[in-house]
Write the structure tokens for this entry.
Amino acid sequence: MSVTRNTTRLLNIQDYGYYRADLLGEAAESIYPEGALIGYEESLSATASRQKRLLQIVNMQQQCLEAEALRGVIDELGDASLDYFSSKKNVVKGDLKGLARRGSR
């Protein structure tokens, strides 16, 4: 038996969560990034395979924006980057401890 799972996910750089697009429902609009290259309505009305490609583009755009933000954080002191990552609810606490240990060296 082959069960196809929807693994199309939307990245939220506010909390570093990857949310399943098929489970978001009405919450998708609040998570969908403002200013995305692909409009929210366009991504909703697409076929499943096209929606997956569109969300990959949106996620890539979000990753680029986050990389730009991280560049500034990394240039600051280690405490600033630890505070930045601590503000993301989906960052694993064990990863934060490792970052803190590396920063104290």
